[in-house]
Design a protein that fits this description.
The complex is a heterodimer of chains A (273) and B (356). Chain A is α/β, with parallel strands linked by helices and 273 residues long. Chain A folds into two domains: 88 residues, Beta Barrel (Elongation Factor Tu (Ef-tu), domain 3), CATH 2.40.30; 139 residues, Nucleotide-binding domain of ferredoxin-NADP reductase (FNR) module (Rossmann fold), CATH 3.40.50. Chain A is 20% helix and 31% strand. The longest helix of chain A has 13 residues. Chain A is globular and about 50 Å long. The model of chain A has no long low-confidence stretch (mean pLDDT 97). In chain B, 31% of the residues lie in helices and 24% in strands. Chain B folds into two domains: 219 residues, no CATH class; 120 residues, no CATH class. Chain B has an eight-stranded mixed beta sheet, with helices on both faces. In chain B, a hairpin with a 2-residue loop joins β15 and β16. The model of chain B has no long low-confidence stretch (mean pLDDT 97). In chain B, α9 crosses α11. With 356 residues, chain B is an alpha+beta fold. The N and C termini of chain B lie far apart (49 Å). The chains are: A alpha/beta (273), B alpha+beta (356). At the A-B interface, loops of A face β6, β7, β13, β14 and β15 of B.
């Protein structure tokens, strides 16, 4: 019998790295065979046996070829996944979805804007940009966090800076040791250099952050279709059958999660769409 | 094969059963027409009709010998094409086993044109995309459809507006038209499978009068629709996200999900997970869900659609507008079930007529 689209494949947790108090990055490899290829911005459905299944973006490929997936414990399923130790198994379906338009950024200045955990699905974008650094103009990464303790991937941010990106970080609630800027990510748009009419932007974070950042980029003259966002919606299937992720006429699981602001902007302006 | 006439449904039911089909037909149960397995024609509803209005459903005895004098029942074919609960898989240790898919052969007797259209919509949803559902395909192939041309549409019917009825034109194996004086059925063939079965029945060729009478049944039914919808420009009307009408209907809507449960095309599902206390086997089950529940749109603990107007707008807009964007067809077949079974009598046709 042909496998049902809702049946996961069993993967083993190879490594587990705590990123901050409530967030871990797992690397996952199938018990047999290789991980299917993925595009930056795509996600998998991760199944914690007996608990449930949630969509999680792929934040990179591990050295041994597995998926790196960063998970924050906010509910029963994500908490169960965060608690998985190396050697334990989970179920994986995917990868699914329409990812970031990295090739569309070729020859242009690039702005990567992340709020909180929104940096996880953007990490493969930055890695791809820096791996082909000479194909792009200025590459700026602006990242916001609630506090210095919740800033994601701090060592990687420093590495990206060394590899040729202008990396700027801001926090909303500084501690005594913080000497950087304070406020929301949108404030950093003024601190980076880009040619608005020749700029492509990748934005991910809480919806309010994405809308504010997109509006700021538009105000500066970036074309709406050149501002991409990644939406988060309730998802039970990721294969266009459960109906939960509908966003107007779109299914976020297949038409998204990455959408241009030219399409997403007017729909996000409608409350409860 | 040309149309034929049969005098009784008994030989048809016996023939279907001898071919291994469980025959499921309309019976009177719990004060309503329900679908259940029958062994003989004697179990079928007979001499009853239904009164359907917004929020109202009553059976009434007519005292005649007619079997199919009622309109849509709270059950639809969805129960058989997409069971309310179905096991997806079990996980034992590091092994996942898919649910053993059994697709019993079922002959659905008495489905109407709107129901056939609804099955067509479901086929598009479950088989037409990039992730076809093999379990749905098995169930669908095991289903034989003996349709009936509607004679007595209900007060909430509007299949004529949606272009789906009342006459059966596609999707059936066999189509019956019930005629009175003398009581008989005109039988039309919709598939090779259907023809094979009809050839095994005692039958007579349909006379010109039989055929004219059968056509008259559909013509009369088409003129007796209880409701209507203007489909011209419907997507444009439903793009009025800020209409005050949403607040008005949202104030009446109980978000009880009845409309989505009786709807023959609503396909949304959720999943349930459990672990056996005996041996630790994890199991995953898929079941019907509704966009009227708060949990449906919840992301990180907060629903995207937290208000009644927001959820009602999502349902109506999906059914009549964004469904067309997604699947190239309307999600509504005009059966009227959502109007009849709404406990506060919200009428989709009235809501659509009052949007700008």
């Amino acid at each position: 019998m042909i496998s049902h689209p809702m049946t996961p494949v069993v993967y083993r947790v190879r490594s587990r790295r705590p990123d901050r108090v409530d967030t871990v990055t797992l690397t996952l490899e199938p018990l047999r065979g290789d991980c299917p290829p993925f595009l930056p911005g795509q996600f998998t459905m991760l199944y914690a046996p007996g608990v449930g299944e949630i969509p999680v973006s792929i934040s990179g490929r591990s050295r041994s070829g597995g998926y790196a997936q960063t998970i924050r414990a906010v509910g029963a399923v994500s908490a169960a996944l965060c608690g998985k130790r190396p050697g334990e198994v989970v179920g994986v379906r995917g990868p699914y979805g329409h990812g970031w338009g990295v090739p569309a950024a070729a020859g242009l200045d690039v702005v990567v804007a992340a709020g909180g955990l929104g940096i996880a699905p953007l990490r493969p974008v930055v890695r791809a940009l820096l791996a082909g650094r000479d194909r792009y103009g200025r590459v700026s990464v602006i990242a916001g966090a609630r506090s210095p303790a919740t800033l994601m991937y701090p060592r990687e941010l420093a590495r990206w800076s060394r590899q040729g990106a202008d990396v700027q970080v801001i926090v909303d609630h500084p501690d005594h040791a913080w000497h950087g800027p304070v406020g929301l990510v949108t404030r950093l748009v003024d601190r980076i250099v880009f040619e608005p009419r020749r700029t492509h932007a990748f934005v991910c974070g809480p919806e309010a952050m994405m809308r504010a950042t997109a509006e700021e980029l538009l105000r500066r003259g970036v074309a709406p279709a050149r501002v991409e966002l990644s939406l988060e919606r309730n998802m039970k299937c990721a294969v266009v059958r459960c109906g939960h992720c509908q966003f107007g006429p779109l299914f976020v699981c297949e038409d998204g999660p990455v959408l241009g602001y030219d399409r997403a902007g007017p729909m996000l302006a409608v409350a409860e769409l | 094969m040309d149309a034929v006439v049969i005098e009784s449904l008994e030989p048809l039911i016996a023939e279907l059963r001898s071919r291994g089909f469980a025959v499921v037909g309309p019976v009177v149960r719990d004060g309503a027409i329900r679908f259940e397995e029958i062994a003989s024609a004697g179990r079928l509803a007979r001499g009853v009709t239904d009164d359907q209005e917004p929020g109202r459903y009553r059976l009434r005895e007519t005292g005649d010998e007619m079997i199919f004098s009622f309109a849509a029942s709270p059950d639809s074919a969805k129960r058989y094409t997409q069971p309310p609960r179905q096991a997806l898989f079990r996980m034992r240790g590091e092994r996942i086993e898919e649910a053993e898919e059994e697709a019993p052969r079922i002959a659905l007797l008495g489905v109407r044109a709107c129901d056939l259209a609804a099955i067509g919509v479901q086929d598009r949803v479950f088989l037409g995309g990039r992730h076809p559902d093999p379990a749905y395909r098995l169930r669908r192939e095991a289903l034989l459809l003996v349709a009936v041309n509607c004679a007595v549409p209900g007060g909430t019917c509007f299949c004529v507006s949606m272009g789906t009825g009342p006459r059966v034109t596609a999707g059936h194996d066999i189509a019956l038209t019930e005629l009175a004086a003398p009581h008989r059925f005109v039988v039309e063939i919709g598939s090779e499978r259907g023809e094979e079965i009809v050839r095994a029945l005692p039958r007579a060729p349909a006379s010109a009068r039989d055929q004219a009478d059968a056509e008259e049944v559909s013509r009369t039914a088409a003129g007796r629709m209880g409701r209507q919808v203007e489909t011209e420009g419907i997507q444009e009307r439903l793009s009025a996200h800020d209409s005050p009408r949403w607040q008005q209907v949202g104030a009446r809507c109980l978000t009880c999900a009845n409309c989505t449960m009786v709807c023959p095309t609503c396909f949304c599902t959720t999943v349930e997970d459990s672990t056996s206390l005996a041996d630790g086997t994890a199991e995953r089950v898929e079941r019907w869900d509704s966009c009227f529940t708060l949990g449906f749109s919840e992301v990180n603990g907060t629903p995207v659609r937290g208000s009644n107007p927001g959820r009602y707008r999502q349902w109506l807009t999906h059914k009549f507008s964004t469904w067309i964007d997604q699947f190239g067809m309307s999600g509504c077949v005009g059966c009227g079930r959502c109007i009849t079974w709404c406990p506060v009598g919200i009428d989709v046709t009235e809501e659509l007529a009052n949007l700008p």
